[in-house]
């Protein structure tokens, strides 16, 4: 099984390298770097801009992502627990939760800038709006899918509703929670970038937008590469945390 997994990893790397090769050939054939820079030009520009990107703009974006994720986890798990505990809360808030995802985030981002100005909170609000939904819904589905037979068994053993929730429902919902969190961490990068694009004074999204006004194609792509790396590393971090916490769950 391990050899099969390694083979798939090599296949993924091969596809990615083939994509970069096609991109490099196409970009050099077009020869319009301000529209489509080649991967080598992006890497060179990334190295040239390493100081402002890594020392100023990357920390600003990371702070938005982390604060947004913390707020989303606290609010999402809290609301999911409340809805699973209280049927009235489920009927009242679940439709609102679904409706919140029908509103284009790109339309709300300027409103957040009006409310919070160019501070970190306007960008955090965008990140929370995007990441709150998958965490809440996945956690709620995990809580609701707790085995009924195990619940009945615990009741016959004298367990209270609180005991069932804390000792059965919450542990059973952890895999679903981490599934939602893995989606949320990648979306948080998008939310931070959108917020910075529409109103910020620093950050990778802001820097990319500034390079666009200067017709610097490689400069536009350089912070995007960093954003992609941040998303991948956050995803890997959640996977590692999930495997560490859910040691009882078998992984293949």
Automatic annotation (TrEMBL):
GO terms under biological process: transmembrane transport
ABC transmembrane type-1 domain: residues covered: 58-242
Entry-linked InterPro entries: MetI-like, MetI-like_sf
Domain of life: Bacteria
Keyword field contains Transmembrane helix: yes
Family: Belongs to the binding-protein-dependent transport system permease family.
Name the UniProt record assigns to this protein: Putative hydroxymethylpyrimidine transport system permease protein
Species assigned in the record: Alkalicoccus daliensis
């Amino acid at each position: 099984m391990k050899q099969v997994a390694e083979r798939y990893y090599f296949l993924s790397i091969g596809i990615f390298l083939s994509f970069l090769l096609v991109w490099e050939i196409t970009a050099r054939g077009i020869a319009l770097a301000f529209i489509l820079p080649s991967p080598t030009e992006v890497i060179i520009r990334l190295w040239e801009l390493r100081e402002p990107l890594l020392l100023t703009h990357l920390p600003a974006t990371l702070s938005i992502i982390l604060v947004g994720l913390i707020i989303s986890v606290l609010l999402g798990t809290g609301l999911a627990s409340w809805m699973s505990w209280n049927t009235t809360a489920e009927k009242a808030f679940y439709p609102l939760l679904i409706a919140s995802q029908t509103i284009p985030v790109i339309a709300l981002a300027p409103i957040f800038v009006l409310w919070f100005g160019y501070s970190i909170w306007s960008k955090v609000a965008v990140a929370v709006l995007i990441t709150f939904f998958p965490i809440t819904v996945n956690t709620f589905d995990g809580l609701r899918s707790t085995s009924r037979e195990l619940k009945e068994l615990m009741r016959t053993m004298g367990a209270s509703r609180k005991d069932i929730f804390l000792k059965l429902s919450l542990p059973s919902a952890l895999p679903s929670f981490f599934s939602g969190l893995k989606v949320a961490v990648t979306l948080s990068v998008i939310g931070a970038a959108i917020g910075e694009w529409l109103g910020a004074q620093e950050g990778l999204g802001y820097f990319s937008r500034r390079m666009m006004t200067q017709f610097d194609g490689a400069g536009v792509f350089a912070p995007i590469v960093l954003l992609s790396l941040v998303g991948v590393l956050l995803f890997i971090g959640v996977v590692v945390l999930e495997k560490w916490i859910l040691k009882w769950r078998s992984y293949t």
